[in-house]
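ok, trying the design again with the full structure, not the truncated one.
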């Protein structure tokens, strides 16, 4: 596959084999963003809060089914921790953890997802 100017070898693959592959890719991209900000605990809470805010229930069912079936194949450590946090906690506790660590939700004006 040729690379367009300005893209590196981490660019999104042109074809995903399944919806689960696409969800793994998307979750890891979110994880990469929050991890790039430093502070792993803040990154985990940020990913969990972002997923809870923007993913629909069918996406959760599929990513959790993938996690259960494969043990999380292809998911990065921060992504795995965020998914574990989502399984174990309520929406309010995810937000509280994000605020406790000084993280941002990504919903503030000017944020990419906001």
């Amino acid at each position: 596959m040729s690379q367009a100017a300005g893209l590196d070898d981490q660019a999104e693959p042109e074809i995903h084999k399944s919806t689960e592959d696409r969800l793994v890719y998307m979750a890891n991209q979110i994880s990469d963003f929050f991890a790039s900000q430093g502070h792993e605990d803040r990154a985990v809470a940020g990913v969990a809060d972002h997923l809870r805010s923007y993913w629909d229930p069918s996406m959760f069912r599929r990513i959790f089914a993938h996690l259960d079936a494969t043990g999380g194949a292809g998911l990065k450590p921060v992504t795995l921790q965020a998914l574990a946090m989502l399984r174990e906690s309520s929406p309010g506790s995810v937000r509280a953890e994000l605020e406790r660590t000084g993280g941002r939700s990504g919903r503030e004006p000017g944020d990419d997802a906001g």
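Keeping the full-length input from now on. Residues 44 and 81 are 6 Å apart (CA to CA).
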